[in-house]
Amino acid sequence: MSVRVEEGKAVVSRAAGALFRAFLVMVLIATPSVLLPGIGADGKQMVALVALFAGLLTFVEYNATYPGLIEFRDAAPLNRVRFLIGFFTVFCLTVIAQNATDPSTMGTFVQALGTVIGQAMDFPYSPVRLATLMMASGALDHQVAAVRTAAGMAYLISLVGLSVFVVMIKIGRWPTRNAAFNIWVNLPTFDPSVGGDVVHRLDRDARVNIALGFLLPFLIPAVVKISSAGFEPLTLTSPQTLIWTMTAWAFLPASLFMRGIAMSKIADMVREKRRANGLLENSGYIAA
Question: Can you tell which superkingdom this protein's organism belongs to (predicted)?
């Protein structure tokens, strides 16, 4: 009887946690449309639909016994750091955009901070300088300045979040030593039984993710600039367009960096387990 009670508590706890995470994701997506003025009814309905879909996906993934898409579900706090990077980026950029029409003390402070950071990072071939090149050739000075400020703030938040995760790994806070690391649960899209030794594959994927994380801030503006030769140039005049474009530009590379660092750490853990058990490379041992 006590076993069933414990199982019931675990199910309720998992469902409550999944529901809370789904709510946070919905808040993240809805933040710009809620805080920014001048958003029409159709725009709010579209945002609400996207938020509901993302929330439902998050709830299903975290409530399921085995997730299908979300990685590192049971390897906190990696996904929490990712979420905080995305949330603070969206929130700060929304506050900056709101300050243009409804000035406030916090908005002025965040905008001034973003301006200083953007100017400090605006040197030749820097990611911030390349981000401003996504603007149309006829963009006004204040539009370029707005992109520079948003890019500087977004890049700073992503670097801080990435640094926090690296420090957690260095001091042994990730992954937790209190429980075994389950590769199947935390890497649902990674099949450890296919494609050679799992350690070599983890190391290879880690290098690929880190390389992409480093290159994306440079590649995204270049791709946008090249594609604009046949399409209308990206002007980023809409506040929501600016917010989500800069968030994606900064968040995706940071997320890839974190994924690569995490996979490299997992590979090291598997090596340690193999040495502790007297096993050799390519032995097929994959538990961490």
Answer: Bacteria
